[in-house]
Amino acid sequence: MNNLNKEKAKKKIAALREKIREAEYRYFVLDDPQISDAEFDKLMQDLIKLENQFPELITADSPTQRVGGEVLDEFEKVEHSTEMLSLDNSFNAEELRDFEQRIAKNTAQKDYQFVVEHKIDGLSAVIRYQDGSFQLGATRGNGEVGENITENMKTIRSLPLKIKDKAELELRGEIYLSKSEFERINQQRLENDEKAFANPRNAAAGSMRQLDSKIAASRRLSILIYDLISHSEKEFATHLEVFFYLKEQGFNVNWHKKAAGIEEVIEICQEWEEKRESLDFEIDGLVVKINDLALREELGSTARSPRWAIAYKFPAQQKTSRVKDIEISLGRTGALTPTAVLEAVELAGSTVSRATLHNEDEIKRKDIRIGDTVLVQKAGDVIPEVVKVIKEKRDGSEKEFEMPEHCPVCGSKVKRPEGEAVTRCTNISCPAQRKEKILHFVSRDAMNIEGVGPALIDQLLEHQLIDDYADLYFLKQHHLKDLERMGEKSSQNVTEAIRASKDREFFRVIYALGIRHVGLGAARTLSNNYSSIEQLRAASSQELEEIDEIGPVIADSIINFFAEKQNRDLISRLKQAGINLSREESEEKEEFLAGLKFVFTGSLNDFTRSEVKDLVEKAGGRSVSAVSSKTDYLVIGDNPGSKYQKAQELGIEILTESEFKQLLENKEEK
Ligand SMILES: NC(=O)c1ccc[n+]([C@@H]2O[C@H](COP(=O)([O-])OP(=O)(O)OC[C@H]3O[C@@H](n4cnc5c(N)ncnc54)[C@H](O)[C@@H]3O)[C@@H](O)[C@H]2O)c1
Ligand SMILES: [Zn+2]
To answer: Which Pfam families does its entry note (predicted)?
Structure first.
């Protein structure tokens, strides 16, 4: 890079600027990005580096010198009282330390503090109040002029229309969609044959730019406030004081934490990298700000961003890749599932080379072709998926995908029942299905039988030593000994592992049966409601549906499962083998939360969402998503959302995180 000559740099800079401008237009104006945020950030970083090397090539219209964004003509324009800037980015601890160094160089002050906040992935808004009423809401636009979205903002429930303070205020906050609401909207759009939004940010931005505010209202957006730009009467000394005041006025304020030095900031950033999934909204990083407002003044800002703040960005969750092929795999229910084979990319800390395409309709809807460049996304532990195709990258060589007519494993005809999205192999004894069912049965969350893996199952099926999972319990050591790669010792271990699995908890057995749609959570719920397999089998679909979390689809599937003679036979052989088919005394004793319903809101400090769900369910309780009159407890973390208000209205018992912990601890002693 160092000996790059100026002519070359000039060309490279021009090309980068061109790409960045195009991406900004698609992102800010069309709400339809074609590259991932991480890729955009990379382009920007490359440009910044080059411009730093050749400062004489910096022009006033370079994207590094201004805030991206455009103002749409459809909306009334609003001039901002204070320019709305971007934030500088940092991607690792080193860059955060550099940020601190720059501050140290620019001030004589020694002991300053930082405030770390969530960087919510939504769209920023300016909000004005006068005489205690919400007056005006505007988008950032190009930083100087934004769009008037007051009417749409009135539909945001978490924005108070009235406040106590009668002074003139100007605030900033982030409008966003919760993950659950985002899913709901996309589901609905798919049902209406509309294009799904790529991510919650685009959905939120798209909703705010609707001319018809009824549409915005139907989207249930939220807002978190993170700054006070001006107050006509009060002076504040620190950012924390501002937060305190905003909270007092009834605003939903952004999560924040004080940090004494940059090392503490780094710790908080790393902590949230792991915890981000526990939030019901997306954050793409954290924002680190100077707490002392006078020091902020002193540090000032560049044309593009303040010097007193920096964004810390998490590793990418979305990236582009290319579909090399589309393969079909068979599940235990015989479903033919298309999977995209991708050019490997690093995504959120792991290498991704496959993504699920769900089913034929999904491929059609997204128009995914072999050879396409696609945007791939990964959220938490879920399987990576293709967000969308970047059609501009097509050169005509892409091939459309056709669902095969025959099962790729057994060759039988496949069928796609009317009204269903899934194509299945029609052969009930298709070896692929049998194998998948057994694999599921022995898997970790189910019966957890170590040593019984795909290779062994293949051999057992091939030698007709077993036909289904119940047969595993009738295997003798001498059956196994002669198999490939088995021998005395391993066959003994395997038979021992099979025997040991006989007293797995009842809910694991229910899960292991492989009833369609019954995942681990539903299995747990069922085991909380029925104490034996006989009771479960006797349940009517109406009775099942009355259980929270068990919908008609699951209920039907359970009924169908027990209706099949083959399955009832499987169960009686499991019983004969001595498998635990009822909830034991010991399991019941732990159920001190039996029947109680919990709702969690806000961000918890010591648990992830799946941890608390697990804890509650282990104790026989249930964790549900919405507050209703049937809720027993609402547990609130930092920045609880609208659920908090609703629970208060309904008079539901509210626990803080530490009270919830106490509840668990006290009861466990009993
Ligand atoms: N994918 C694309 O094609 C594409 C194109 C352009 C921009 N982008 C994305 O947009 C970013 C640049 O856009 P930008 O200038 O709007 O954002 P930024 O990343 O520079 O950060 C500033 C914005 O952060 C938001 N924010 C959230 N929480 C905040 C908090 N607690 N305090 C202060 N601000 C907070 C505000 O909306 C603010 O306007 C890029 O980093 C990139 O990720 C992507
Ligand atoms: Zn088959």
So the answer is: BRCT (PF00533), DNA_ligase_aden (PF01653), DNA_ligase_ZBD (PF03119), HHH_2 (PF12826), HHH_5 (PF14520), OB_DNA_ligase (PF03120)
Closest approach atom of ligand 1 to CA 84: 39
Measured in Å, residue 637 CA sits from the centre of ligand 1 at 26
Topology (CATH) of 6-65: Helix Hairpins (1.10.287)
**pLDDT value at 618 more than 90:** no
564 is in an annotated binding site: no
| pLDDT class of 587 with cuts at 50, 70, 90 | low
Q: Which numbered ligand comes closest to the C-alpha of 199? A: 1
The answer, yes or no, to whether residue 375 has pLDDT greater than 60, is: yes
292-301, 429-438, 571-580: the lowest-pLDDT one? 429-438
| 399 is an active site residue | no
Q: What is the pLDDT of residue 670?
A: 41
For residue 424, the ligand closest to its alpha carbon is: 2
The set of protein residues with a Cβ atom below 6 angstroms from ligand 1 is 23-24, 26-27, 33, 35-37, 40-41, 67-68, 86-87, 117-120, 124, 140, 174, 226, 254, 287, 311
Spacing, Cα 226 to ligand 2 middle (Å)? 56
Q: What CATH code would you report for 431-503? A: 1.10.150.20
- Give the closest residue (by CA) to ligand 1 atom 14: 86
Q: What is the pLDDT of residues 466-513, one digit of tens each?
A: 989 999 999 988 888 888 888 888 899 999 999 999 989 999 999 999
User: Vertex 630, ends 624 and 635: CA angle to 5°?
Assistant: 50
Is 86 one of the annotated binding-site residues? yes
For atom 38 of ligand 1, the residue with the nearest CA is 124
628 is in an annotated binding site: no
Closest CA to 363 of 330, 334, 339: 339
Q: Give CA 6 to chain center in angstroms.
A: 44
How many C-beta neighbours within 10 Å does residue 158 have? 18
CA–CA dist 140, 78 (Å, integer): 9
179 is in an annotated binding site: no
Does pLDDT of 666 surpass 80? no
> Of 119, 257, 437, 613, which is the active-site residue?
119
Domain 506-588 class, CATH top level = mainly alpha
Q: Kindly list the domain boundaries of the chain, sorted by start residue.
A: 6-65, 77-313, 318-394+401-414, 431-503, 506-588, 590-669
Ligand nearest to the backbone CA of 29: 1
- Give me the architecture of the 590-669 domain, per CATH: 3-Layer(aba) Sandwich (3.40)
Q: How far apart are CA 102 and CA 418, in angstroms?
A: 65
What are the φ/ψ torsions at residue 127 (nearest 5 degrees)?
A: -130, 130
Which of 3.50.50.60, 3.40.50.300, 3.40.1440.60, 3.30.470.30 is the CATH number of 77-313?
Answer: 3.30.470.30
> Mean pLDDT of all residues in the chain?
88
Structure confidence by residue, pLDDT tens digits, 424-434 = 888 877 888 88
Please tell me the class of the 318-394+401-414 domain.
Answer: mainly beta
CA 399, 404, 410 angle in degrees (round to 5)? 140
Protein residue with its CA nearest to atom 35 in ligand 1: 119
pLDDT digits (tens, 9 = 90+) for 122-181: 999 999 999 999 999 999 988 899 999 999 999 998 999 999 999 999 999 999 999 888
Segments in 422-453 forming alpha helices (H): 431-442
Closest residue to atom 19 of ligand 1, CA basis:
87
Q: In which element (H, E) is residue 389 found?
A: strand 385-389
Mean of pLDDT values over 187-210: 80
CATH topology of 6-65 equal to that of 590-669?
no
Q: What is the mean pLDDT of residues 4-29?
A: 88
ipTM of the modeled complex: 0.93
Q: Would you say residue 4 has pLDDT above 80?
A: no
